[in-house]
Amino acid sequence: MILTITMNPSVDISYPLNKFVINDINRVSEVKKTAGGKGLNVTRGIKYSGIPVLASGIIGGTTGEYIQKQLDKDNINYNFYITQHESRNCIAILHEGNQTEILESGPVLDSYDVSVFLEHYQNLLSQAQVITISGSLPQGFPVDFYTQLIEKANKYQIPVLLDSSGKMLLETLVSKNKPFLIKPNKDELQQIIQMDIDPNDVTSLVKAINHPLLNDIAFIIISLGKNGAFARCHHNYYQVSIPKINVVNPVGSGDVTLSGLAVSIHENETVEVMLKRAMTMGMLNAMESQTGFVNMGNYDKYYQQVKVTKIIAK
Ligand code: ATP
To answer: Are 57 and 8 in contact (CB under 8 A)?
Structure first.
């Protein structure tokens, strides 16, 4: 089973409007509400791939209940730590080809919640063969919290796939408790290593992926949007190119890419298959309007078009 961790889930609300008028009333007829948060997109990607998955993290209040109902509808197993604090709403106003977002920061939790969740997580570890950790932390959680989750998983040799950014990612890179895999996009990696990356230049990508901060990470996958990905798996480098596709909504593509990586590691697939699977999942998400949704009927068609080239780095 793959365990997915979403520490700050949300109800994602989308309001499509022909015109968004500031300082006036905007009436919306087609409201869409889904269980959101990066880790829940990962969860759905794994579920679509037919692999057992359990979603965990922290939820609370009526928003938390709504998240559980949505997961029930999708037949997704979950085991959250439930607090008294209301989970957040994230609103996307879709107007005139633009997306204006209003994101609540979510509940403020404290050291009690940290210790209770750590215990909750510890109890789930015996069921997990692979763990994914995605997104931000609730307010009040220490910045090294993911390091603590990784340390516990590493004790049982459960590989952790981490998709985070900024200080939370940096903490894990400087800690002795490393994740097995990270999947930064170009901007997230640039921010960490303080270096510009040219996605079309292999020398620039090799230099970035060999930054000392990344030394002890077994698998590093830099996702590059329409440019595919560049990876270092153990000591080998891989350039992954993808076909041109009809992009409808690329939001969440990175999350669904992570689901492909997790499934492959769970299934002991080769690195080449893993990279092809991950890219295919990302593309399938980008071709749909709904975030974190893929049409698996198109899987084989796009999988065949992903090219993985092993690079001999100079
Ligand atoms: P997000 O934060 O929205 O989840 P991300 O920035 O982490 O995404 P990206 O690098 O944008 O991740 O996308 C992940 C993968 O999804 C890409 O490697 C690619 O396979 C696919 N993808 C994303 N955007 C596009 C696009 N415009 N065209 C083709 N494929 C795309």
So the answer is: yes
